[in-house]
């Protein structure tokens, strides 16, 4: 990227010290992820739509994800523990050492 004058790659990250916007984004992402897990459980294992189950399930999941992205704009579409951790490793060259990262993405 530097050779071509492009912006370097970046992803979801925050500094746990003096970064109120980053911490708010972390809580936003955590809430969105928990609601996403509840939605996926309900749509895939609790509801039965009979013959059209697959099509209705896929549509409801897509609408639910879009709703979460709109409701939690600080989280954005990266409501994904693996993606958040991958960006951290890409940027810092090692696994996260702050518990806030694991609480936000993996708990």
Question: How would you characterize the overall build of this protein?
Answer:
Helix 1 (20-46) runs antiparallel to helix 2 and helix 1 packs parallel to helix 4 (99-105). The protein is an all-alpha fold. It contains four helices and no strands. The chain is elongated. Helix content is 61%, strand content 0%.
Task: Give the helix/strand layout.
Blueprint (H helix, E strand, L loop, with lengths): L19 H27 L6 H19 L9 H12 L6 H7 L2
Helix pairs in contact: 1-2, 1-4
Question: What's the short story on this structure?
Answer:
The chain has helices at 20-46, 53-71, 81-92, 99-105. It has 107 residues and is mainly alpha-helical.
What is the alpha-carbon Rg in Å? Answer: 17 Å
Biggest pleated sheet: none
Number of helices: 4
Low-confidence stretches: none
Mean of the pLDDT scores? 79
Calculate the terminal CA-CA distance, rounded to whole Å.
34 Å
Oligomer: single chain
**Helical/strand content category:** mainly alpha
Percent of residues in helical segments? 55-70%
Number of beta strands: 0
Order of helices and strands: HHHH
Shape: elongated
Beta-sheet strand percentage?
under 5%
């Amino acid at each position: 990227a530097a050779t071509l004058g492009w912006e370097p790659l970046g992803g979801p990250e925050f500094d746990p010290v003096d970064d109120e916007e980053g911490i708010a984004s972390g809580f936003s992402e955590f809430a969105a992820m928990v609601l996403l897990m509840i939605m996926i459980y309900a749509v895939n294992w609790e509801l039965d739509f009979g013959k059209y189950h697959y099509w209705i399930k896929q549509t409801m999941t897509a609408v639910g994800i879009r709703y979460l992205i709109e409701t939690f704009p600080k989280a954005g579409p990266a409501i994904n523990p693996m993606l958040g951790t991958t960006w951290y490793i890409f940027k810092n060259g090692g696994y996260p050492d702050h518990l806030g990262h694991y609480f936000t993405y993996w708990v």
